[in-house]
Amino acid sequence: MRHRLAELRGPDVPAKALDARALAALAANPGCARRAILDGAGVDKARLATALGAPSGFGQSQFALTRGNAFEARVKADGGAELLRLVHARLDPGAEPPAGAAVPDLTAHGPEGRTARTALALREATEAGGWTLLDHPMLALEVAGSLAFLEPDAVVVHPDGGWSVVEIKSFPMVDGAADPAKAGAAARQAAVYVLALEQVAARLDPVPEVRHQVLLVCPKDFSNLPAGCAVDVRKQRAVTARQLARLTRIEEIAGTLPEGTCFAPDRPAEELTAAVEAVPASYAPECLSACELAFHCRERARAAGAVTRLGRPLRAELGGLATVAEVLSAARGASGDPADPAVAALRRAAALRAEALRTAAERAAPLPGDGPAVGAGEVGACR
Questions:
Q1: Torsion angle (degrees, nearest 10) of CA 17, 20, 22, 23
Q2: How far is C-alpha 346 from the chain's CA centre?
Q3: Quick check: 301 and 79 in contact, CB under 8 A?
Q4: Taking the CA of residue 245 as centre, how many other CA atoms within 13 Å lie in the half-sphere pointing to its CB?
Q5: Mean pLDDT by 10-residue block, N- to C-terminus, for the chain (383 residues)?
Q6: What does pTM read for this prediction?
Q7: Strand 213-219 relative to strand 163-168: parallel, antiparallel, unpaired?
Q8: Which neighbouring-strand residues pair with 197?
Q9: Residues near 211 by Cβ (< 8 Å), separated by ≥ 6?
């Protein structure tokens, strides 16, 4: 399977590692086989989108990355003293205050080596008791038959043996509250780390507790001082686990592709377009903030008249009507089963619209002897 994925990616193209952000986005759209196979094969979707002629502005700016790295370094300075203080205050105030916490060295060769070293450090810290800070540990999580290596900002082992995920972000926390959309994205990302940690914990005896409350650390107001809040990710964890379990296994998707399919960005645009179109996609407006191929998929959805481009809630309400042409035909009564609730609702809405337009036109029409007729432009304005 690894050989097959390397062929899809391109024999000389290095694999792009999956991260928690990509897994959270993949779990939010489990019906997209296109993203599943591209992420599983390690394809650089940003380069692929540029080669297809639909470059995406998705991703962080260099300024945001630099600011984020500087803030994370400040939070973890002095052996993570400030970070551990926030963990103690927000997640475990009943424990002994952290003093001289252990910070094990997680250096190892390759992601497999770092994953094994992290698992060993977690076991040793759990057995030793006390506070332990794991800075950028490496975790592994199997997704649709492919192994993804994840690197959380930090994992803290509590004196009682429990494990907590720490997520450090550079967006501000104003008056103790962060932007709901950004905080929600951070929670979904942290939920992926919690799932990966649970797999590590399941191999230990006794099984340590992986806490479902994670610590979100952000700049306080508009300063560079760290502030933290506890975020319960039980809901995000359950949703992510369910969605990842529903993903079609990568070998099943790869088996449906034509022989010779390759997503290497140095291939001709026509060949790349054919390769990408060979895998079905499930586009929705939310993809614009989560996937590098969103602009390409949006144009294809527009060309096909797919209703998914109008949003998942509307798509769910329309049932088996998958295109705008089918929706309009059903509304006019030219097609569709009248017993279908979606078809019946569309026809009722069309009848109400026609009645409203007729009433507006009648009200705009002049009575005999009332002067000149209302102009067509004025009737259009009334409509």
A1: 110
A2: 32
A3: no
A4: 7
A5: 83 81 81 87 90 78 81 91 94 90 92 95 94 95 80 95 95 88 90 95 94 95 90 93 78 87 90 92 86 91 87 81 88 86 90 91 73 46 39
A6: 0.74
A7: parallel
A8: none
A9: 91, 158, 162, 163, 164, 165
Query: Would you call 15 helix, strand, or coil by DSSP?
Result: coil
Q: How far apart are CA 202 and CA 98, in angstroms?
A: 26
Residue with tokens 């009848």: 351
End-to-end CA distance of the chain: 60
Beta carbons within 8 Å of 334's beta carbon, 6+ residues apart: none
| Neighbouring C-alpha atoms within 13 Å toward the C-beta of 216 | 29
- Residues 133 and 111: their CA atoms lie apart, in Å, by 19
Q: How far apart are CA 255 and CA 269, in angstroms?
A: 23
**Which residue has tokens 């399941």?**
202
Burial of 48: CB neighbours in 10 Å, binned 0-12, 13-18, 19+: buried
The answer to whether 162 and 215 are in contact (CB under 8 A) is no
- Give the CA radius of gyration of the chain: 27
